[in-house]
Amino acid sequence: MDNLFLKYMRERTGRKKSPGPSFESPGPVITISREYGCPGRRIARKLSETLTEKNKSLGNSRTWRWISKEIIEESARELKLSPSLMQDLSEYKERGFFENLALFFSDEYYPSDVKIKNTIAKFIYNASVEGNVVIVGRAAEAITKNFQNSLHIKLQAPLEWRAKIVADAQGMNIQEARKEAMEMDHRRSSFRNYFEKERPDIDYFDLFFNCSTLSDEEIIESIVILAESRGFVV
Question: Which residues are CB-neighbours of 36 under 8 A, at least 6 positions away?
Fold first, then answer.
């Protein structure tokens, strides 16, 4: 599987000029990307529960799962990262030249950014091949875009709405929350661009939802309808 993964990543990053592979059997996989403050994990959890119940109602015991923090935990474990580096990774933080230089001469193991990102991609790829999984964040839409049995969701909302959500959740004032949301959006975008090469969102996502005008239930129901039409529920 790893050799197939490496071939896939070479094609995704443009190292080999050939059409992207079309995976007919791996999956199904649903990816959820979100602007900071949108309820990606909550929707992923409810969506996986709903899809599992749909399967059971049809006499199928196949269970859907959702993953988010597990991507970082498993990748960090494989890379033998320290807790501090793992925390930076979970927050999409990038280090500058002098921070990297300091780490190079310290006792703390620090793999290259490329190795970190490719390890994350490998975990996402393998989980997607197993199928029946909802993946939150980490550029999963780009890593699995060429899977035939895939569906890619983007959750969005106006900045002021998201800032209020962040302020209420983290005990910030609205100015601090607005800044936090903008900074995290930038970090996530920078991480995604490693895989997406700054191509527009429309190249990767099938559905866009405005979380400020739609309830969780409305979003999940819409996703389930499309998932059923694509044969993800059997």
Answer: 162, 166, 180, 181, 184, 185, 188
Query: What is the residue whose two structure tokens read 């699995």?
Result: 144
Cβ atoms of 139 and 194 within 8 Å: the answer is: yes
Instruction: Give the Cα separation of 123 and 116 in Å (integer).
Output: 11
Separation of alpha carbons 132 and 121, rounded Å: 18
Count of H-run helices and E-run strands, the chain:
10, 5
Q: Is 8 exposed, middle or buried (0-12, 13-18, 19+ CB in 10 A)?
A: buried
Both tokens of residue 19? Answer: 């059409």
Instruction: Dig out the tokens for 84 from the structure.
Output: 């501090």
pLDDT, tens digit (0-9, with 9 covering 90-100), for 20-56: 334 445 779 999 999 999 999 999 999 999 999 998 9
Mind giving me the DSSP string for 169-198?
Answer: HHT--HHHHHHHHHHHHHHHHHHHHHHHTT
List, for the chain, all residue ranges whose pLDDT scores fall below the cut of 70: 1-25, 82-112
